[in-house]
Amino acid sequence: xxxxxxxxxxxxxxxxxxxxxxxxxxxxxxxxxxxxxxxxxxxxxxxxxxxxxxxxxxxxxxxxxxxxxxxxxxxxxxxxxxxxxxxxxxxxxxxxxxxxxxxxxxxxxxxxxxxxxxxxxxxxxxxxxxxxxxxxxxxxxxxxxxxxxxxxxxxxxxxxxxxxxxxxxxxxxxxxxxxxxxxxxxxxxxxxxxxxxxxxxxxxxxxxxxxxxxxxxxxxxxxxxxxxxxxxxxxxxxxxxxxxxxxxxxxxxxxxxxxxxxxxxxxxxxxxxxxxxxxxxxxxxxxxxxxxxxxxxxxxxxxxxxxxxxxxxxxxxxxxxxxxxxxxxxxxxxxxxxxxxxxxxxxxxxxxxxxxxxxxxxxxxxxxxxxxxxxxxxxxxxxxxxxxxxxxxxxxxxxxx
Length: 401
Prior knowledge:
32% of the residues lie in helices and 21% in strands. By secondary structure, it is α+β, with helices and mostly antiparallel strands. The radius of gyration is 24 Å and the shape is elongated.
C-alpha cells in the first residue's frame, strides 16, 4: 500500500478513469452517486500526483492549514472535531507493535491519503518506505493531521465538495471545485463507518456496522448521516463524545412501584429517541445507568447499575454482552430496594457516558503486558489519561414515593 508513495503515474491514470482528473473530465452530472463514490473511495487512495503548474504553493498544498486560509469556519470546526485527532496517541502507540500491514488497515480511515501513509512509513523506517523526501505540497506532519480536508475533498489535486458548488474553473483558486451530490449521501460516510460483509466480526456481527444500522432504521430515506453529524454543513461530526448529542439521542423515564412494606421497585426506561443507529453504535463507548437513593442530609447510596453498550474482552475475541439500543428501541433496567423510614427520600437515575471504555481497558491491559519502546510507552500513558478524562454525566431524572 505504501509503494510508489508520493507519485504514481499508473495510479494517476487509473484514477483518471473514475474521477475526471485534469485533462479527462467527464460531466459530473452524468455520474450517479454510487459510481461517483466508487471512484472517490478506491482501495487504496492513489497519490495526488504532480500539481498543475498553474497552482501556487498554497493551492497545491495538502495541509489543512492551507485550506483554512479561504475556508476558516470549516477549518476551525474540523480542528475541534475527532476527525482531526484520528492519529492521536491512542493509535500512534500501537503502530510500533502492529507493523506495516496491520497499521495500513487502520490508516484506511484514520489517515487515508497515500501521502500520509508514506510519511508514517518513513517515520517508522518500514522497508517499503519511499527513499525520497516528500514534495513541497506534502507537509511533514500531514500523517499526524488525521482525517484531513484533502482526504475527503481532494483527488488528483482536483477539489470536490457538495452542491451548491462550481464546475472546475481555471480562473478561481485551485481551479475551482466540482459539486458532487455524493457528499450529501450517507454512503459517503459508509466508507469508514461500515465494514464490508467479509470484514472482521464478533459473535457473528460486524464490528463496524453503522451504515447498515441506519438502513434498518426509520431514518433511512428521511435523514442522512450528515443532517445530524454535519448540521448546516458544519464540519463537527459530534457523537457519543458530545453531551448535547447524547441528550438528543437518549431519553430516560424513571418510575417507582410499591411492592408492600418498605419495598419498592425502581424501573428505568432508556429510549433511543434520536440516533439513527444503535446507541452506542460501536463497542468502544458505554453508557452506565446508575440508580441512587437520596435522603436529606445524607450522601447518596447506590442501589444498582446497568450498562448500555457492546462489551467484549480486550482482545475482541469474545462477546460479553450486547445491550445497545437500536434506533427507536428501548432498554429497561429495574432494581428492587428497601426504602428508608420516613419521608423526603427520592431515587435519582443518571446516564454516565464513558466514550472510550473499551480503549481504557485495552490500554491498561497492554500497559501491563506489552514491551514497548519509551516513546510508545509515553504515548500509551497519554492515551490512558486522555481516555479517562472523557467521562461525563449526560442525563439525570428523579422519582419519589
